[in-house]
Amino acid sequence: MPSVMGLLEAREKKVREEVARLREEAERVQAALGVAERALERLELARVTVAEVLAEEPSAGAAGPGRAAVAGSVVPHRAEGVGAEVLAPEYQQILAVLAAPEAAGGMRAKQLAVQLGWQTTPAGVEGVRSRVKRLTARGWVAELRPNVFGAVRPAVSAAVG
């Protein structure tokens, strides 16, 4: 029959090995947690920074004579005193077509693509639709009916005669 002390020593050895294994696993988890926390912190900072940049009012010098808009640039929200020159050239072309008398009743994306001389393939038309929807969301273009777009008209005073 084994001695009580021998049984206790065997059990103690087994528990010490389990404690050592768990400590190693805890250290590994702590290291992984540290890496994940640093990544989360960087993402949170990036999100806050982007939100701050997007919330800033466009400054008068941002798209002035020294900085012309380029293709693929961000479409700013329409604001008082901000002209179409802040928009990238392809967006300016869309506005010009929609401002023409032929577009008085509004135009669909395919009609815009034809007027612009751009591709009328499904992908090309979808590119026009994407751009004009972006202009609509930012207040540069009006959606007169579903998928029919027109130039934004100046506000008419409610105090008529």
Mean pLDDT: 83
Percent range for β-strand residues: 5-15%
The whole-angstrom Rg is 32 Å
Q: Tally of extended strands? A: 2
Dominant shape: rod-shaped
Helix content: 40-55%
Cross-sheet strand order for the largest sheet:
1-2
Structural class: mainly alpha
Largest sheet: 2 strands, antiparallel
Order of helices and strands: HHHHEE
Distance between the termini: 114 Å
Uncertain spans, ≥5 residues at pLDDT below 50?
60-68, 156-161
Number of alpha- plus pi-helical segments: 4
What report would you give on this structure?
This protein is mostly helical. It is 54% helix and 6% strand. It has helices at residues 4-55, 89-99, 109-116, 122-137; strands at 141-145, 148-151. The protein has a two-stranded antiparallel sheet. Strand 1 (141-145) and strand 2 (148-151) form a beta hairpin. The longest helix has 52 residues, at 4-55. The radius of gyration is 32 Å and the shape is rod-shaped. Residues 60-68 and 156-161 have low confidence and may be disordered.
Give me some keywords for this one.
2 strands; single chain; disordered C terminus; two-stranded antiparallel ribbon; mainly alpha; 161 residues; rod-shaped; 54% helix
SSE topology sketch:
Elements: H1 4-55, H2 89-99, H3 109-116, H4 122-137, E1 141-145, E2 148-151
Antiparallel strand pairs: 1-2
Short account of what is shown:
This protein has 4 helices and 2 strands; from the N terminus they run H-H-H-H-E-E. With 161 residues, it is mainly alpha-helical. The protein has a two-stranded antiparallel ribbon with strand order 1-2.
